[in-house]
Amino acid sequence: MTKSTLFIAGALLGLAAWSATIGTAAAQSNNVIAAEQACVNDNQHSAYPAAITDCAQALQLNPNNATISAILCIADGMAGTAAATVTSCTQAITLSPQEEPPYVDRCIAYINLGNYSAAIQDCTQAINLNPKDPLAFGNRCIANLASGNNTAAVQDCTQAIALNPQSESAYNYRCDANINLKNFTNAIADCTQATKLNPQYLTAYVDLGNAYFDQKNYATAITYYNQALAIGPDENGYANRGMANQALGNKAQAISDYQNALKIDPTNQNALNGLKYYDVKPASQ
Q1: With pLDDT > 70 as the criterion, what percentage of the chain qualifies?
Q2: Is 128 helix (H, G, I), strand (E, B) or coil?
Q3: Per-residue model confidence as pLDDT tens digits over 62-83
Q4: Which partner from 28, 147, 204, 282 sits 20 to 30 angstroms from 122, CA to CA?
C-alpha cells in the first residue's frame, strides 16, 4: 500500500548550523541587506510562502549567499513544489557542500517526485555528513521501501528509531517493510507501537489490518480497518476492508466498501477489481 505520509523536515529550521553572516553593509547595497533580512525574518516566523519570494529576490541580488540559499531550500521544502525544492537545495549544496540539511530536504523532494535512487543518494550523503540525523535514515527508509529494498528499509528505520524512539512514522514504515518481507510478527509489533505513540495514526491501523489480511485472518483485519475508518475516511481502509469482506463472503458489505473507496479515489484498483468481481459498476458511472 502506498502512502503520502513523510518525515517532515521541520526540524531543519534551526539556522545555527548556517552561521555564515549575511554579508557586510560595506559590500552590499541597502536593497540586498533588506531583502536578505526579510528572507531571514520570514523563515524565523515560519512564513514560508513569503520566504520563497523574499529569498529568491535576495539571491537575485546576491546569488552567492549560502545562508539565504539554504533558507530558500527549507522554504521550498515546506511550502513550494518538489521540483522547486530540488532546484533551490541543489544551489544550497553547490554553495555549501559540507552542510547536511539541504541533502535531506532534496532527498524528500526526490521521494515526492518518485526519483527514489536520487533520494537514496542524497540521504546517504546526509548520513555521511551527520550519522546521528534520524530524518536522513527515516527518509532513506521510505525511499528504499518504495524501491522494493525492504531489508534495507528495515535497517534504515531501525536506525531512525534508535536515534528517535518517539518516531511513529519510523515504526510504521518498518511495519510496511516487514509485511513485504512476510515478517508478520515484527510487522504487528511495529504498527502496534506506532499506534501507541499516536493513537490517531490512521495509516498504522490500516497496516495492522494488512498484516492480518496477508495471513488470511480476515476477521481480525476487519477489526483494524474499522479502527482506521473510525478515525477518518481512507480509500485503502475501505478497499482493503472490502477485500476482507469479500474473502468472508460478505457481499453487500464488500460492495459498499468498494464504492466508498471509489468516492475518495475513483482510480483505486483494488476497489475497481472488487466491483468487477461482483459485476457491479462504480456508483459514479
Answers
A1: 89
A2: helix
A3: 999 999 999 999 999 999 999 9
A4: 204
Tell me the pTM: 0.86
Cell of 11: 526540524
Tell me the CA distances in angstroms from 242 to 176, 208, 222, 246, one per residue in order.
20, 15, 9, 6
Rounded to the nearest 10 degrees, the angle between the axes of helix 66-79 and helix 30-44 is 40
CB-CB neighbours of 164 under 10 Å: 18
Alpha-carbon distances of 56 from 49, 59, 162, 210, rounded to whole Å: 11, 5, 38, 45
Residue 226 contacts residue 262 (beta carbons within 8 Å):
no
What's at 107, amino acid-wise?
C
Query: Of the candidates 62, 69, 54, which has an alpha carbon nearest to the alpha carbon of residue 29?
Result: 62
Q: First-to-last CA distance in the chain?
A: 26
Reported confidence tier of residue 34, pLDDT bands at 50, 70, 90: confident
Reading the block at residue 18, the C-alpha cell is: 548556517
* DSSP for 45-108, written as a single string: TT-HHHHHHHHHHHHHH-TT-HHHHHHHHHHHHHHS-HHHHHHHHHHHHHH-TT-SHHHHHHHH
Q: From the DSSP assignment, how many helices (H) and strands (E) are in the chain?
A: 15, 0
Q: Is the pLDDT of residue 1 over 70?
A: no
Average pLDDT for residues 42-54, to the nearest whole number? 93
State residue 15 phi and psi, 5-degree precision.
-100, 10
> Who's near 141: CB < 8 A, 6+ residues apart?
153, 154, 156, 157, 160, 170, 173, 174, 177
Residue 12 has pLDDT above 70, yes or no: no
